[in-house]
């Protein structure tokens, strides 16, 4: 019995190893490429040993095609969208999760439905309206359309955290004649601090990674870093190593936060459907 | 004084408080999502071609009628079906198989989870560019290096129409299979072990245990994964845009990309709006079907 068991273990380990490499390899390969010269990138067979260089990072950050302005655009849009989202989402999520009011079920369903709209169906009317009012290539326009996906998402994610707060805490606060707003602020919100932090992070990351809205509604002034990746690709020439370095810089926040928050990621990704089945 | 009065007051107070909290988000959502959709529907009834602005005007259902004789539309519809069905099936199949395998690995699961997180958090546009350059580029891409080493020759993975479709399906599957894997792994880990003990005592084989115990228990999670992955596949954009731009020709132009290209490359926003309306209708229909199926089972 021992031999087949050992070979089975070995097989499992091989499969696991393959898995890790298939998923991690393109990212690690990009990391490696970002330290190569353009000449080394095109070597065949591909070089695993080479003298690393930091010029790609220097070029990408301080060179003529610097992505620093794009990082700034991404930061401004993502921060503004995140702040506004939380401002509107926290109260709405609390009402949906905890309070009785007419039309609660249907309003929850409405929020969920808005999350399922195909982005292309939104970007066309936004383009037409923003063009008419002169808001193309503006922070306000981009932040507004980012709210269309972040607000429903944040509301539903927060609802799941509000639901975990024990009812007794709320009742105790109300019996104290604390008033509902004070109870919410001083008793409930501290309980969901963790959930709010997770939600904030996810909303920020989603905004940071967004592409379609940015490429249509942005421009020369407001040009998030996802769009700027195309700076390194043109019909005549692909700047492999710079693209890799730029992508590494652009994705660094996402990768770091993703790895730190990995335990919450599955929850964040499944939130709509878990709650949306209409079981309540 | 009766007891009913304060309860009544409390309920009214609660109602008012709830509306005050919910109304701002609700009104905002109406303004930023529902109103634009109505405007989209209105535009789909217009002739609105930025390259010929002087011809603009109300067109009734012309844009929709035009689709019937538009081979590019039917092509994009077929591609959407192929792309969505194949990516969802592949993700669930591979994700579930891997989850079942990994569940048996006593140690090192944490490392696997970390590797699985990577593709999920990356921006799809960056994923598309990585694959276009580092993985699939002729001669220097990883896949081409492997096929050359194996004697299978070099291929233009994104330039050949048939290979390009397979490539974009592979890219999508690569990025999102970890999601199915993580969700199903988490679900499998919560299954009660005593059921399996009982089954083993009944001499049920591994296949029987899977079909009669595991699958029914994880069905809700599988359905949820299918719903979410279908929605993502239907509105997939950035990775395809970065890898092929919908090409070569229209070889990877799913409906979402066709609506985008019509609107913003060819600047025919009226017809683009109508295409987006069709995509919206398909999304609503499919999510309704999946959700009602889910409720019926639950």
Distance between the termini of chain B: 46 Å
Strand order of the largest sheet of chain B: 1-2
| Overall 3D form of chain B | flat
* Count of the domains of chain B: 2
Sequence of secondary-structure elements of chain B: HEEHHHHHHHHHHH
Quickly give the CATH architecture of the largest domain in chain A.
Orthogonal Bundle
Query: What is the radius of gyration of chain A?
Result: 24 Å
Q: Number of helical segments of chain A?
A: 14
Average per-residue pLDDT of chain B, rounded, comes to 89
CATH topology of the largest domain in chain B: MetI-like fold
Outline of chain A: globular
CATH class of the largest domain in chain A: Mainly Alpha
Q: What composes the largest sheet of chain B?
A: 2 strands, antiparallel
Estimated structural class of chain A? mainly alpha
CATH architect. name of the largest domain in chain B = Orthogonal Bundle
Distance between the termini of chain A: 50 Å
| Total number of strands of chain A | 0
User: CATH H level of the largest domain in chain B: which superfamily?
Assistant: MetI-like
Radius of gyration of chain B from CA coordinates: 25 Å
CATH superfamily of the largest domain in chain A: MetI-like
Largest interface here, residues on each chain?
A: A-B, 94 and 91 residues
Chart the SSEs and their pairings.
The complex is a heterodimer of chains A (280) and B (298).
Chain A: H1 2-33, H2 38-41, H3 55-62, H4 68-98, H5 104-115, H6 119-133, H7 139-162, H8 167-175, H9 180-191, H10 193-209, H11 212-217, H12 225-228, H13 240-260, H14 262-276
Chain B: H1 4-43, E1 46-47, E2 57-58, H2 62-68, H3 71-102, H4 109-121, H5 124-135, H6 142-149, H7 161-189, H8 193-201, H9 206-234, H10 238-243, H11 255-264, H12 269-297
Antiparallel strand pairs in B: 1-2
Helix pairs in contact in B: 3-7, 3-9, 3-11, 4-7, 7-9, 9-12, 11-12
